[in-house]
């Protein structure tokens, strides 16, 4: 198959053309996806900033409002741990070390509704069969980030392991945890921001929009390069054919 482009005659093998166009389409799609992710992250950061500009909320304000509307807000209050419930969120990596995020339910004054608090990271022991036993105070000063977004992690196997506390957990499932608790559970997680015996490490946006845009430009550049190589190869073939 032959065609003219920029005054040059190109001879293209149909199989080579199909491979080139397929690779070009895939790379363009990847570039577009990264650009969309950048836009989504930008909106998410803007929403969090807008909510936080209104100042910290109390536990009472959180429970009286909508978890979705308060997503990204800062909360400052005193919470009271409801024993014996302690869940250890598995496979949390911090500074190259394996550990758990310590998650507990708390109550605020004059309320029976429970809210999950992620206290932060705790190192795992050498023996996976032996779970660490974190010491949780009855009263906790909470300075936390409110997140209402559920986990989208892929669950492989059973979510909860064991029949006593602390209990290993693969991902946060409000409905599943509600079955273990004596009172209603608010659909949000408070990510503690101040260090204690545990290390806070949660970030609402792990990869910033700028990095997504950088990846988008890289994929776009590769797409152009693939197309250019295909055209150059075809032109070289036509040139060699004319010389023969």
UniProtKB/TrEMBL annotation:
Location in the cell: Cell membrane
Membrane-spanning residues: 6-28, 216-235
Entries under Pfam families matching the protein: SURF1
Principal subcellular localisation of the protein: membrane
Membrane topology label: Multi-pass membrane protein
This protein's record includes keyword Magnesium: no
Protein keywords: Cell membrane, Membrane, Transmembrane, Transmembrane helix
Protein name: SURF1-like protein
Family statement: Belongs to the SURF1 family.
Tree of life domain: Bacteria
CC per GO annotation: plasma membrane
